[in-house]
What does this fold into?
Amino acid sequence: MTAALVTAEEPPAPPQGRPGGGTLRYVAGKLGGAAVSLLSVVVLGFVLFRVVYPGDPVLAMTHNRPATAAQQDELRARLGLDRSVPHQFLDYVRGLLHGDMGTSYTFSRPVTDKILESLGPTLLLVGTATVLATILGLWLGIRGAWRRGSRFDRTSTGIALTLWSAPTFWLGMLLLIATGQLFPSGGIRYPDTPPDFLSQAVDVAHHLVLPCVTLIAVIYAQYLLVMRSSLLEEMNADYLTTARAKGLRDDLVRRRHAVPNALLPAMTLVFLQLGLVVSGAITVETVFSWPGLGLLTYEALEAPDLPLLQGLLVVFGGAVIVMNLLADLLYRVLDPRVRAS
Amino acid sequence: MVTVRISRWRLGLTLGALLVAVGLAAPAVTTAAPTAAAQGGTVLRVALTKQVDSVNPFLSITQAGTELGRLMYEFLTTYDAKDQHPVPALAEKWETSQDKLTWTYTIRSGVRWSDGQPLTAKDVAFTFNLMLTNDVARTANGNFVANFDSVSAPDDRTVVIRTKTPQATMLALDVPIVPEHVWSKVTDIAGYTNDTTPVVGNGPFVLTEYRANESIRFKANKDYWRGAPHYDELDFVIYKNADAATQALIKGEVDLINRLGPGQYDSLKNAANVTLNPAKGRRFNELLFNPGAATSTGVPIGDGNPALRDVKVRQALAKAFNLKDIVSKVAGGYAEPGGGLIPPVFVSYHWQPDASQARSFDPAAANRELDAAGYPRGAGGIRQGPDGKPLTLRLLGHNGTAFDEQTAPYIKQWLSDVGVDVTVQLVSDSQVNEITSGGKYDLAFSGWGANPDPDYILSLHTCSQRPNADGKGGTTDSFLCDPQYDALYTQQLAEFDQAKRAELVKQAQQRFYDLAVGVVLDYDNSLEAYRKDRFADFQVQPDPGGVIMAQNGYWGYYSARPVAGAASSGGGNAGPVIGIAAGAVVVLAVLAFLFARRRRATSAERE
It folds into this structure.
């Protein structure tokens, strides 16, 4: 009994044990898997946008403006589109290995530059929103599960589900109109804000509020629901009875015993979500004209700007793969059961 | 142990809350500063809802991009604000040789670049020669120099251009003239972003800041040769959402906006301090009938319905369309029913069929003519072709375009009324391009923005624009190939007398109308709005009834005057302070609530 008690208390402690040879093999296996996935993303990106994608990009680029057939050929040759498909693929892979994702059709700028330029705003918006939504969702989920069926539980779950089902575009526009003069209608900052850091930070924070709130409103429900259901599963576990029998206050039983054990599914979700952070929130960024990767994707699709779409796909896919890899590795740290298996 | 943990936790939270509170409260004090700084000069803030691709004038092809280019760089000639005829800009006068092959332009003296260097004929010759020798420099405006033989500058004020064949469009060269002393050092035009500010130019405004996807800032060019603009700064703010941009105008975050939808425009009717401008636009929407697509060598391609090869069938179908309904129901009344290819905004070239020539909405006549053409009604009221098959036509449109989506059901209904079955296919823009350029359509939506010079729009329907023998490189709009139309097109391009050329242009439009390979459905209005409490005196083009933004020139921005006493930049000032204060209050309230709950819960548990 004592032994059981001790192990029940132990898991949240950081692992002290040396990882054996198994760890190395585990890590190598995961790394290999990630590399294969990344390679497939690269190939998929090429096939999707260069082979399957309908329409001639040169026609799209010259549409609605005077361009002779000779000019179209000139353009085609400059973009390397006059070469055979295998040749184009080799060009593309060669470029990727040098960190070159090609040149955007629309912006005449390197795809890498365009993506890096938009990465910051996206990390700021989606990162902030994910962190806040996680905190909010987990907290409400824990509360709701602990007092399952209470009025608080029913209300918070109801609200979360309603917001989760609300169309993002509509919710964003509604917030924009309802808040009147309080917040800017779009963008990340006013053009004439003084360049000093404080003014810029304040202006960006002011512009961040509405998109961030919209994004939190539509995503926090998933954390709430996962946390709530996984905690509910633990609710009747024997170790909780033991903890109570030891005389621990209910609050402590929840925080130190039940929650750590119920946290794993939520962790998986958080990491999955972190991988998706870079892909931004296309709708929210478009509604609020937030100059991030989501907006860039929207613009690339509008054109269509194939090299940019290809680059974005690789970056988005890569982010998800890397985050999943991290989650896999972190699992071993967080849960001894994974380590043992 | 336990108590220590709790208090540490609580301490952390308290500190966090304090940080948030301070972070949110500090702005409340400091946000006054930006406004004060902005008051150092008057700023016209414009909402841009279309994509700016580049500010490199040799690469920029989007409408928004070229509009910004016009503010930075002058052309040899520009277009009059009243009626859009070519007027002097950098070239103050010009003459043509007897054989019409040599054009001599006299460059205005005393014009300076924004860095103080004098502008000479050498800069002009440099710009054109760069385009002649460098294919990247031809990306955006290559069509203007395609017929050039040579360009030279014998002295500082004279530019001589020799063309290969006589060209009537030599006063419509929309080529931004760039400074040789800057651009001769540019080795890689494709990679040159031209946004190292301030960008040396000669237009009414100088680019001072370019933030892709955020904003583009210009400062007034105080040394502009026409005289300095009446305000200090011109800012373009990018909005990807026209509804949000409309809100921004209502809130006073921007002063001028265009490309409004009918719904957005109507929503502004009751907004305070907003003036509406339902301007005539230069865009038209059309419906194409596949007349039997073929390559330029005459080999048929595609799979267009053979019924449409009969001009009588096309003319009959065109009578089934009620264009007035399109104007009122699709465009919300903000359009004009279609006629000739050149929109009415270009007064001298626009052609409208007179009562005797016009095909008015007349389903009875359409029915009669289809009967006579050999397509009698069969089972279910659907007409049958000579082969006994029911007459079913595919209607191709763009799935992201409101006009196509909303008009398609009307077309389907109207054609059904005359016994023709229609299948609607709405697909992506690039698929539309792919399908139409291969001639694999029956009916297709299309639309163009016309220029003051009618040459380009007319050229889209000539035989030579059809794809080459491999089926590639086509730039035709309608697959029309008609000797009479081609002859009219060629004559107008070589006609240097303005009035005679206009007459030929109108005849070409009439021929196009009679052949009915396409029906111009409507001419869209360009819906604009601005804050009358901030700016006034926008010069529209054409005048009256024209646009402020997206002009063939810079008159709208150049002529605007700030309204006296409108020093504050709109109603947006109190926003940050109140907004952030409100945010702080909400955050604090939530935190207080949490603490209260926690304390109550803990004390309850302690018992």
